[in-house]
Amino acid sequence: MICISLADAFSLDMPTTQKYADTYNKQIENVPSVLKSMIGSEKVNIIVTREDGSDFQVGMDIVSGRIERTVEGGISDPTIVITTTQGALGEVVKSTDRIAAFKSQADAGQISFVGNSWLANAKIKALLSSTSFLQFCYDLFFS
């Protein structure tokens, strides 16, 4: 889920989002089972504010670590909401150390992750602190 938010930095459309979701689903089988179990099942909304001030919103229904469906405009009652700006994602994409840039943008509040339960917040914290997961995202979308 975190990976997808990075990947759509400049495309910000549903066909590209679906392409990344399909790629993610193919690659998730290669992720250690402990990371897949941490991802688990969530309903995630991603909101990216574009440079022109409009929002791109997409929902993802994640079941057992796989993205089962994407929903243009978002999912009602999400368990996790990721918000960011196109500019913050651009900073990550143009960086020579994208993992460090991502962490820096998240620490500065430019990329935010909010869960609606203590379990969702615990998952977010664990995934964001996992270098293995962040490396998986980097390899999936930027290699």
Structure commentary:
The chain is of the alpha+beta class and 143 residues long. It has a single domain (2-138), classed as Nonspecific Lipid-transfer Protein, Chain A, CATH 3.30.1050. The chain has helices at residues 2-7, 14-27, 33-39, 86-94, 98-107, 118-128, 131-142, and strands at 42-49, 55-63, 66-72, 80-85, 111-115. A hairpin with a 2-residue loop joins strand 2 (55-63) and strand 3. It is globular and about 40 Å long. The two termini are 18 Å apart. Residues 1-10 have low confidence and may be disordered.
Q: How is this structure best summarized?
A:
With 143 residues, the protein is α+β, with helices and mostly antiparallel strands. The chain has helices spanning 2-7, 14-27, 33-39, 86-94, 98-107, 118-128, 131-142; strands at 42-49, 55-63, 66-72, 80-85, 111-115.
Which features would summarize this protein structure in a list?
5 strands, Nonspecific Lipid-transfer Protein, Chain A, 143 residues, alpha+beta, disordered N terminus, single chain, globular
First-to-last CA distance: 18 Å
The proportion of strand residues reads: 15-25%
The residue ranges in which pLDDT falls below 50 over 5 or more consecutive positions are 1-10
Number of strands: 5
Architecture per CATH nomenclature, i.e. the level-2 architecture: 2-Layer Sandwich
**CATH fold-level name:** Nonspecific Lipid-transfer Protein, Chain A
Strand order of the largest sheet: 3-2-1-4-5
Shape: globular
Following the backbone from N to C, one meets helices and strands in this order, namely HHHEEEEHHEHH
How is the main sheet built?
Answer: 5 strands, mixed
Number of helices: 7
